[in-house]
Amino acid sequence: MSAIKKFMFVNRKAPYGTVYALESLEVVLITAAFDQDVSLVFMDDGVYQLKKGQQTKGIETKNFSPAYRALEDYDVEKLYVDSESMQARGLSEEDLLVSVTVLSRSQMGALMDEQDVVLSF
Amino acid sequence: MLHIVNKSPLTSNTLDSCLSTAAGGDLLLIEDAVYAATRGNAAESRLKAAMEKFRVYVLMPDLAARGMGERMSDGVTPVDYAGFVDLTVSNKSCQSWL
Amino acid sequence: MSSIEVGGKSYETDEEGYLTDLSEWNAEVADYIAKTENIAMTDAHWEVVNFLREYFEEYQIAPAVRVLTKSIGKKLGAEKGNSEYLYGLFPYGPGKQACKIAGLPKPTGCV
Q1: I want to staple B67 with a disulfide (CB 3.0 to 4.6 A). Which of A54, B37, C53, C92 is the partner?
Q2: Residue C74: is its pLDDT beyond 60?
Q3: Is the CB of A46 inside 8 Å of chain B's CB atoms?
Q4: What is the pLDDT of residues C81-111, one digit of tens each?
Q5: Measured between alpha carbons, how far is A93 from A105 in angstroms, rounded to an integer?
């Protein structure tokens, strides 16, 4: 067995407008099957991915937001959101689907430095 | 005329380009641009200022999809797809700020 | 696109036999798909299939085998939440076979 690596997924795009958020989620679920150390970061418009109450019937698109609540089952428990990004969008932790750790930009940068692999979406 | 914006106001300068260029008329926010018309968004004040020149509409299915249906800014008119079509018909021309 | 005929009705599937439209699923189709997989459905099989459908309803994903095993253990007890039990019911993989019978997509991260 190869050594466990630290993977970070950096999510910076809003859901639905582009396919990045969904693609990232799928890769995260696949990576989780290989028992790696996975961290998810949500910053800039990426914080919108975790907004509660998404109703996609009207745009005939799959609502994939419930899957973020399944991440715990996949042992993906390190979810970080950027405080500034939340503030600029009028969001607070209560607006989010899952419990997260809120970090400042500099804390986020330090965490990024610790990773073996950083994947950008 | 009708101006359509579809990019998030906080990751693209599209909305600003539109607002600084267009003289006025109808402004329709769709896709990720709907976030501009939500309470607490950093772009909200720019949109409010623009309301002096523009009638601002937001495509409701896009707002609801993003879980922001309850947060629409005051002074914005929600439209559905039929309303979208009406706007394109009632205006003599249309610019999509892609 | 392929399709299967059950009870005089045609159901669209992908090349691997997974239902395209999961809202079309019913018990009769489940039985039919199970037969094509050489599985005779028992209450124990149904328990897993129903669990998968509930999981999908809640999270909109078909869980990977490891996640399925763990979640079944939590909900139905340790004697069911293990590979021996689940592979005993679905020899070619509880993820692949049970999801197919449950009318769900192939599990994400299924290798």
Answers
A1: A54
A2: yes
A3: no
A4: 999 999 999 999 898 899 999 999 888 655 4
A5: 17
